[in-house]
Amino acid sequence: xxxxxxGGCLCGFIRISARSPxxxxxxxxxxxxxxxxxxxxxxxxxxxxxVQWTGKGGKPATWRxxxxxxRAFCPRCGSSIGAIDDAPTVALLTGCFDDAVHAExxxxxxxxxxxx
Length: 116
Ligand SMILES: [Zn+2]
Ligand SMILES: [Zn+2]
Description:
By secondary structure, the chain is mostly beta strands. It is 6% helix and 40% strand. Strand 1 and strand 2 (15-19) form a beta hairpin. It is globular, with a radius of gyration of 13 Å. One zinc ion is lined by residues 9-11, 13-14, 74, 76-77, 79. This is GFA family protein.
């Protein structure tokens, strides 16, 4: 069975259930820094169809950050969740996950190029 990754925001309004992670990477671009308040963040991507928003809040709130992507966050507690692309990709910040899955995702320093 495919492993399911669960996670969510600080207050629990936004909950995530995702499978089949790909393209883990870190980023320290200005966009990521402003979005999260952190100097450097770690990402992992999923196909849109492999991500379910299972919390009361449904899909996270978004802010259009580039021509092809929007930054996602919890409208209630303000936690950064990730980025929802127009292409069928959802990128999640690995800090959102319930378990310490960081080690599973071997990071390549493959910045999001400040464009997502
Ligand atoms: Zn929240
Ligand atoms: Zn970035």
